[in-house]
């Protein structure tokens, strides 16, 4: 079946594009977008409380007088102030632990409403996460000097 469309045009003439081609192009476009959230939230190596020891800007939180903890359970991340114990944020997350590098998507729904796509790894007892804020795309590579770094709470 053919459909007449007002665009695109060549030399002022309307081009006929079959519906099947339009559908195929849409599928290719959607599959090329990295906005989907992986279907798994199961990587037990993340579970527990992690202390932030380096911010994405490369700063040590204790040097600027703050303490931040991220606690991962099966499907939630709770961010707390390490000094007062007050909850700063709580969000859901999903991972694709089979991808290389591993992928994490944080679904923020309290401070802001957005998906923060990222990458993560646990190496030498440290959790490293890189993610984009404000609707950015997933980082392509996990860079040591740009990743947020966490150490596990020894009481956990």
Structure description:
This protein starts with a strand and ends with a strand. It folds into two domains: 31 residues, no CATH class; 109 residues, Lipocalin. The strands form two sheets. It has an eight-stranded antiparallel barrel. The chain has 156 residues and is mainly beta.
Highlighted features:
Lipocalin, mainly beta, 9% helix, two-stranded antiparallel sheet, eight-stranded antiparallel barrel, 46% strand, disordered N terminus, 1 helix, 156 residues
Strand and helix map with partners:
Blueprint: E1 2-10, E2 13-18, H1 19-32, E3 48-54, E4 68-72, E5 76-81, E6 87-96, E7 102-108, E8 114-123, E9 126-131, E10 148-152
Antiparallel strand pairs: 1-2, 3-4, 3-10, 4-5, 5-6, 6-7, 7-8, 8-9, 9-10
Rg (C-alpha, Å) = 21 Å
Outline, from the CA principal axes? globular
Q: What's the CATH C level of the largest domain?
A: Mainly Beta
Tally the helices.
1
């Amino acid at each position: 079946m053919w459909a007449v469309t007002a665009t695109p045009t060549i030399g002022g003439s309307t081009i006929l594009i079959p519906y099947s081609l339009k559908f195929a192009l849409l599928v290719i476009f959607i599959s090329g977008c990295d906005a989907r959230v992986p279907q798994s939230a199961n990587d037990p190596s993340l579970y527990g409380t992690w202390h932030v020891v380096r911010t994405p800007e490369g700063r040590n939180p204790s040097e600027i007088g703050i303490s931040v903890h991220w606690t991962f359970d099966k499907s939630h991340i709770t961010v707390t102030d390490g000094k007062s114990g007050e909850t700063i944020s709580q969000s859901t997350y999903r991972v694709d632990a089979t991808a290389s590098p591993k992928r994490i998507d944080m679904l923020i729904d309290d401070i802001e409403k957005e998906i923060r796509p990222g990458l993560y790894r646990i190496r030498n007892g440290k959790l490293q996460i890189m993610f984009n804020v404000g609707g950015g795309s997933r980082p392509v590579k996990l860079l040591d000097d740009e990743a947020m770094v966490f150490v596990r709470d020894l009481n956990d």
